[in-house]
Design a protein that fits this description.
The structure is a single chain. The chain has 235 residues and is an alpha/beta fold. Helices cover 41% and strands 17% of the residues. The protein contains nine helices and eight strands. Strands 1-2-8-7-3-4 form a six-stranded mixed sheet, with helices on both faces. Strands 5-6 form a two-stranded antiparallel ribbon. Helix 7 packs parallel to helix 9. The radius of gyration is 17 Å and the shape is globular. The termini are far apart.
Length: 235
């Protein structure tokens, strides 16, 4: 029930803007009009870590990890503002649309979240985003399926690791859910397959997830994320 109460509190109690943290202002979906305008002005574009890890698919991000977008993601993930899943998911849908290039059947696969993170955040934040992204795309006429063929294994906090350590940890971070594979393979047939994440930094997580999916017989066409760290060049 803790997660339910956190969601209700975000809806009914006075809250600060998730983008600029200003209080006593009109909020819509958790952000003030100025921050909403800044987020709406962002346009998805291709991004690529330098150097890119082997196996990283083509990746598209909404914007750089900074400003209103960074604050909104932190409020959603770390400060319990679960109602932000809807606007963030709608923004992620725009990234998927850019990655796909044209309306077409898509299969969305969010990067699996560890059990520790799910408990700490009172739910799977990426699956929430994926559901809202899927709803937005369906409303626009896209045939959308969601898949979860992998599970996340326990791993060290990436903040404590260097680039080589992150890559080594990511290679052993995911396991296939054998029982779900047949259904996901059927869902992926004839669809544009997109792996979803909130932030791309080194790209090793997206590469590891994509590699695990390919090894299980699933094609990966692209990755869609909300933010790319500022050290990564947009191109």
């Amino acid at each position: 029930m803790t997660g339910v109460w956190a969601e209700l509190a975000d809806l009914v109690l006075p809250a600060e803007c998730a983008g600029c943290r200003v209080t006593r202002t009109e909020l819509r979906h958790g952000v003030c009009p100025r921050c909403a305008g800044a987020l709406q002005a962002l346009r998805p574009a291709p991004v690529r870590p330098t150097p890119a890890p082997p196996g990283l698919p083509a990746c598209v991000a909404l914007g750089a990890y900074g400003g209103e977008l960074r604050e909104m993601l932190l409020a959603y993930k770390e400060r319990g503002r679960h109602s932000l899943a809807r606007p963030l998911g709608r923004l992620l849908a725009e990234v998927v649309a850019e990655a796909a290039g044209a309306p077409r059947p898509v299969l969305l696969i969010p990067v699996p979240t560890t059990a520790v993170a799910i408990r700490a955040r009172h739910g799977d934040h990426l699956r929430r985003l994926a559901r809202h992204a899927g709803q937005r795309l369906r409303a626009a006429g896209w045939p959308v399926a969601l898949g979860a063929p992998l599970r996340a294994l326990p791993r060290p906090d990436s903040a404590t690791l260097d680039t080589a350590g992150r890559a080594a940890a990511a290679r052993h971070a995911f396991a296939v859910r054998a029982g779900r594979l047949p259904a996901v393979r059927r869902s992926g047939a004839g669809r544009f397959v997109v792996v979803l994440d909130d932030i791309v930094t080194t790209g090793v997580t997206l590469a590891a997830v994509s590699g695990s999916l390919r090894a299980a017989g699933l094609r990966v066409d692209a990755a869609a994320v909300l933010a790319a760290t500022s050290r990564r060049g947009r191109r």
